[in-house]
Design a protein that fits this description.
Blueprint: H1 2-20, E1 25-30, E2 34-36, E3 39-41, E4 44-50, E5 55-60, E6 63-68, E7 73-76, E8 82-88, E9 91-99
Parallel strand pairs: 7-9
Antiparallel strand pairs: 1-4, 2-3, 4-5, 5-6, 8-9
Amino acid sequence: MKKHIYTVFAFAVFAASALANQATELDVRVPFAFKAGTSVLPAGTYRVTEATSGFILIRGDKGGVFVPKTAVVVDIDSGKPSFRFNRAGDDYVLQAVHLPR
């Protein structure tokens, strides 16, 4: 009986810590190919997650990349969630990510 109680308690602690550590996420549809950090990503729908250790994770249907926060401006609590790009000719470069908190 004691083992069962400890298991339930451990699960409750794990669930509470998982909820406390939920990452900030943003779903966005990008209608053009773009460069994020050193990677070029195709047009598509992406989920952006604020990762620890100075990176953001950009995941799409065809894979994902970790982008250093030094390569893009990551703004949290900026109001409206959004992506901001720089355009140079036909190329788009991810400049900033505005994430909700």
